[in-house]
Structures are given as C-alpha cells and as structure tokens.
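Minutes, project check-in
Item: structure for the 463-residue chain
Input as provided by the requester:
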Amino acid sequence: MIRGGLRKSAILVTVTILAIFLAGCGGGGGTTSSTGSVTPGAQVGPAAVEITLAAAPVTGSAAALVTVAGPASVPTLDPSYLWPEHVTDPTPRIAHVYMDVVKVSLMPAEEPFSGEDIDQDGNLPDPQAPSGKPRFVTIVPDSPICIDLLKLDNDKRFARFLNRFDSVPAGTYDKIRVYYQNVRVILANGDELPFHPTANSKFDIHFRQGHELVIPSTTDTTQDDGWVRLFRVKIDFVGLKLNVVPRGNGKKGWDSCKVILRPQIFAVAGNDVLYSVAGTADNVTGVASPTVEGTFDLSFGVGQGYPRIIHTAFHNGTTWAYSDNVLGGSHWIVDVSSTTGFGAFRNGAIVEVIGRFDTSKVLQARDIVFTFPDLRRGVVDNGWRGDNTFVLRSPSDNVVFPKPDRSAAYYDNAVAPHFPLSDDAIDNNVRVKARGYTVRDPAGNPVGIEAYWISIGGIFPGP
C-alpha cells in the first residue's frame, strides 16, 4: 500500500543531517521559494515547517465551533451552507470532490484573507496565475496533486508534499493558501457534475486563534552541533459544506441549480517536540519476537568532528516504510508492517527517523522510513528460475534473490501510481528495478542483489 506523511505531532526540532536537509531540497517532487522579508538584524534560519493532515477530532455536522485567525469560524455559521448529508435535493448525493493542487503558500499574519469559495460557474476567461507576494513561502509540485476534498484526511500524498516548506523567514503565520484547478465533482451514481471554477482559484486554511505558527527571530542553526528547528503544523479537516443555489431555469436535478463549495479546514501549531534525524544505519540489532524491538546507530556528516553518531532504538509501536529516495523526499513510499520493515533493515540502509530523545540521549523512533542502499535495473531474462531467483540481461552481477522469499518480497508497478503486484508479474523481457543489498561471492565480487522491493514496468523485445 502506497502512503505518505510522517504521522502526528507538533513543534519538531531536527538534528542537521546531510546537506540535503539544510540546503532546502524542495522536498519530494516539488520546489520551494521564499520572497520573505524579515526584521533587520533578525537571524532567519533556515527554519522549516512540516505540515500533516488529519481528520478533526469531530467532523461534519457534529463538529464543534472553532474560532480561527481573522473574522471567521469553522464550521461556517452561514445558514446557506449545508453539510453534504443534509442536502436531500437534488439527488443523487455528491460522493467526491476532486481537484488538482498546483501551488501552496504559507502566509504571514499581515497578509489579508482572500480565500474564495469553489464556485461551479467560475469567472471566465481565467485570470493569469497569481505571482508570489512578499513574505509568502511557496511550494510547487513537479506535477499537480489530485486530492478529494471529501476524503482529505486520507490523502497521504498531499500530506507528504506539504511537509516540504523550508527556508521560512522569522515571523507569525496564520494561514495556508491552496491554489487549485480542474475541479471534478462526482455524484454517487458515478456521473460527473460539470464544474468550471477559474483555473487559478484558491482557498485559505486559517490557523486556530491562539495557535498560529510562530517562527522566532533567532533559531538554533548557529549552535555547534548543527541543529535546525522545524515547526510542525497539524491541519484538521472538518469537512466540506455546500451552498445549492436554484438557477430558475426550469430544469430538474443538479441541472436546475448551481453549487458553491466551502472547505471547512483549520490548522493548529502545537507544542510537542520531536526530532528528525537522517543518515546511514549501522550496528543494527534486534528481535522480531515476541515483539519487534532493537537498536542501531545512525551516522551522518563528513569532515572535522564527523561522522556524528546518534544512538537509536525502535519498538513494537514504531511505524516502518520503504522510500525510493528518503533524502530526496520521494513520494514513492510503501508502508510496511514492523515485522517486514525490521526484517528488511540492515547496516547501510539510508534512513530518516522521527522520534524523541530519552534521558540517556537515545533517539526513540516513532517513525522509520528508509531507502535500500543498493539497486539493480534491467530486463528479466526468461523469467523465474527453478531456485526462485531470476537474472537480468547483463553479463555479470545480475542475479536477483527476492527477500524474504519469492512470494513475500514486495512487488509494485514502476509507473505511478505504483499499484501493488505479485511475483507473477516477473516474466521474460519485463524491465525491473530491484532494491536491496548487494550479494558477493567468497572473493568479494558482486554477483547480484537480495531484493526486498521490486518494481516492474515495461516489456522489451528480446529472445
């Protein structure tokens, strides 16, 4: 199952690891820009903001009223807006509201609110794309990210994308602006309701009053140990309200009215402290029974005073995931069980850990996401062999040993959205990407790879 989003929490402090995080990598399929201006003499950063999505404690019509920054509340008190379950006419009900997110901005408090409802009849022609304003910190995905506003709390890919705000200037931020296009409203019977908002439409996510995001003017980046402070923001998705406006055109059903959508979302900057550490795993040890638990050392850095070693522990409550490129913030992430994750975790894995330091300065891992250090790409030669391995069409170092075994290795489609596959997908002339650990002969020469994650895509001519 492909998922994303480092889970839960609030203010996050990270140990500086490998220049990729410090340099503001843009994070996982997107670019970040900041036109921020700061108070003269203030020390800025880089500071970074991680943002996660979750369902509010109570959603929909049962949700309690929340006062947010600016003259507003969530849910809206406007009586013309109804929860989807309260819209009984027209029918059938609205089941999905898809949109493509094209840009997201973190906005300081001095910027005015200007979010818009999602109007079925947008203003045409579409205006030009909005330019960045001073003190906006903006991330743009490499390609638009499709979300469903009726199931936003489950949208892990969007959550991973939002995690990549970096180089944020000092100041107070009280809104997150989402720019979108290509709205598709799907009814319960599968029909699509025509929707034509402007191509550069937007809506604002307001911070709960008193829980705004505050980046201090002085960060921890000048300390000798190289820490960088990250601030964690949680977005609570309450739901979506509808305003159904009669058109008076004599038609029936949804053709007789116009629909205006208003997302009911607010954000909270919390006070919990976590750390993010990334680097290379070493001295991995542990047990899988009766529960998964163990330790490893995480090292990073080169030059005088490095590598830096962080002693890390994991337990049965730790979540595990594979990443195609954890340091690059790849969206290609596979959640696995703790038993599977620990079984595939060895010395040399490239890993990011989220957790807290205990009183002994051991990092207690809550989330472990790691990338296998070795990779083989190629075309399968004649499919499975009798010993449950296969070879790639290359002269040497070409044997793929599925791990833990042929049926238990993880297989998926190499082409997005990377649906899971089975070992039956391995066949003659298919191209594969096998991730794992290099296998060597007694003389130390590489002969192949023990592959825990095998991606399959494309059929190529061959014998």
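Outcome recorded: Residues 10 and 368 are 18 Å apart (CA to CA).
No further action items on this chain.
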